[in-house]
């Protein structure tokens, strides 16, 4: 800390001397990802006419909607210094639960089916929260365990079969409202609310404090348990919403519908600059993160890159993002 | 037993009777009975390990006593925890700072006491203003919207103190609050303390700096081996009495006689060393057997210079050791050439608290203790470690004991001892070697340092403790903003001269 203040003093003193090569290098490094992505987009837009169209942009947004919800949940959890690996399985479980109650002949209304699906996700999230906050099980282990538990529950509930034959009302969830696709509308609402919570409320401030320095937060009267419990519950709830939306889009509740989604969600948060150590980053970054992943997926598909190669590209981007973050922080010291 | 600071009507804030506490059967507190009044500043004096921290933890509800009773403001407290303690107005400022580095200064100050609108949104501007007002009231000028990690140690400490004292604190426990503060910042802190005292708070304070005890406290409670052996008004005690009581024996002199070596052979020569982040470079040399002190305010850039010479920090320039070039930025090479480093932040970079004493002492020398087959030769490692621990007078139970369980003074001795395992170093770099260390251990460390110098070791000593700097060094360089402001010979060493140089011509030395 002592050194930081000195470095900044010296840096500010050096400003009149002009911009150094080092600063240019730092700038290039910080925005390397954005620059590469921009180049990729421009190339794509020029060479391929179906990419930069309104309908394709809309497709991208619909495609990223589910990941956006999961990434928002991941942001809450990671900001407290935790991790949630169970959201992919929760997507499958909540989709199956909602679908079971949303079948055509069901006596239960569509709203109730949606609520039950979301509740299933919230319940798993709350269970994660109990384990982490009260039983002090490390987040990685607790959520890894519940990833399997949720997945198993989804298979049991669906008997391993897709649950189809859903009511039109339920399927309408993948339609539009006021001309906007419902998943996209949900995504926008969730992101905005999350931004307000994290940037403008006491709860948000406490989340940063818990991740930034739990001991200091505790001494300042922040309830560590309640905050940790809350973020896992929120993550489960958002995964539940994502699961219901995906079931409507797939016209069926499928237990394996969210397999691997947790990694995309964590990747979006990390690419967006949410520090895995906790306490640093903002939801705006996460938005960039899931948009980058969405645009990349879409663009690579359009130019017919094999999905196998897409995996490699995505993995390298995640590593690159974290590398840049660590380099920038190192030179901050 | 309590000093009559406020006459018969004084209300007792803290009342301990017969408190005992043991860890694993080892008594840490023995039958503590003591009372502290409201509106007083009370120093708990004692060597590290005397039980001061444990007593603090009991008063602040972090630890339960095995037996005995604690009353706060006359009310007996049972089944007490940290949250209850806060509710009663007990506030503790730990020695280890607890900022949230990635959050803003105002957030750090006001966390736990947020102000929200009826819609649940933070009243941000109001909170920023409040934080600014809090800082202004103690003469601290820091932009409340700066990230906490941009502040230097001293300002961070002041923010922590403000944070703890501003939440309606009626009993304030400060564990060595001044150990990382310079003289000026200490004055700022004292202003805060005096205001709190005037407001009727009861302040308990630990410090190893005698002149502070005399300046700020109303009473002194001297602890030794887990017991309070004397509690009296400060004005009735002399410095000599306090020290003798703390140590339990007479310390004839804190500082050893400096050995003057005749050698003129330079060990370390530094030319135009430019540490990254500073707009200045330094040149100096240290001779065989010479203790070269580096004085200056906290944050003057002394640590950075030392770290650059050792290779921990990026720098340019020329450094030679015994006439041969030393490549910068290569710690392993530095170690091989005989440079030993005892860094400032003991727990972060000096020792590995979770490892055993044996591992800590032998870590830099594992190559020496490895057979040609790549297996550690533990017998050899143990005998040599035992030998060096004996020479440095580390008090420990067994080689396997975790260093984190030792007292601060013994931890520091381990940090030094590790460099003496395979002979003596050529250059010994000491950065604030006695910060937070009790008098007894300090005098032993001084003797050790002096002995090493007498054997021809060149010593670079950065210290904010003026008596230490003046009484130990053969020569002192005063550093400010990474620049050498002046050089003082042994006969010119005076506290005032050093301070004047350290603060530059302008008084605007801070931030």
How would you characterize this protein structure?
Chain A is mainly α and 333 residues long. Chain A has one domain (68-325): ABC transporter involved in vitamin B12 uptake, BtuC (Orthogonal Bundle), CATH 1.10.3470. In chain A, 75% of the residues lie in helices and 1% in strands. Chain A is built from 15 helices and 2 strands. In chain A, strand 1 and strand 2 form a beta hairpin. In chain A, helix 9 (182-200) crosses helix 10 (202-212) and helix 10 (202-212) packs across helix 12. Chain B is of the alpha/beta class. Chain B has helices at 52-59, 82-87, 105-110, 124-136, 153-166, 183-198, 210-216, 239-247, 302-310, 331-336, 346-350, 357-362, 378-391, 408-417, 439-454, 466-472, 495-502, and strands at 12-23, 26-37, 40-45, 67-72, 75-76, 90-93, 171-175, 202-206, 219-224, 227-233, 266-275, 281-287, 291-295, 315-321, 324-325, 339-342, 427-431, 458-462, 475-480, 483-489. Chain B has a 6-stranded mixed β-sheet, with helices on both faces. The longest helix of chain B is centred in the middle third of the chain and has 16 residues, at 183-198. Chain B starts with 11 loop residues before the first strand and ends in a 9-residue tail after the last helix. The relative contact order of chain B is 0.11. Chain A binds chain B through residues 1-11, 13-14, 196, 200-202, 205-206, 208-209, 212-213, 215-222, 275, 279-280, 332, and chain B through 82-83, 86, 92, 94, 98-103, 107-108, 111-114, 116, 120-122, 124, 148-153, 155-156, 163-164, 167, 277-279, 298-299, 301, 303-304, 481-482, 511.
What layout of secondary structure does this protein have?
The complex is a heterodimer of chains A (333) and B (511).
Chain A: H1 2-14, H2 21-30, H3 32-47, H4 54-79, H5 87-101, H6 110-134, H7 139-158, H8 168-171, E1 176-177, E2 180-181, H9 182-200, H10 202-212, H11 214-219, H12 224-250, H13 261-271, H14 283-302, H15 307-332
Antiparallel strand pairs in A: 1-2
Chain B: E1 12-23, E2 26-37, E3 40-45, H1 52-59, E4 67-72, E5 75-76, H2 82-87, E6 90-93, H3 105-110, H4 124-136, H5 153-166, E7 171-175, H6 183-198, E8 202-206, H7 210-216, E9 219-224, E10 227-233, H8 239-247, E11 266-275, E12 281-287, E13 291-295, H9 302-310, E14 315-321, E15 324-325, H10 331-336, E16 339-342, H11 346-350, H12 357-362, H13 378-391, H14 408-417, E17 427-431, H15 439-454, E18 458-462, H16 466-472, E19 475-480, E20 483-489, H17 495-502
Parallel strand pairs in B: 3-8, 3-9, 6-7, 7-8, 13-18, 13-19, 16-17, 17-18
Antiparallel strand pairs in B: 1-2, 1-4, 4-5, 9-10, 11-12, 11-14, 14-15, 19-20
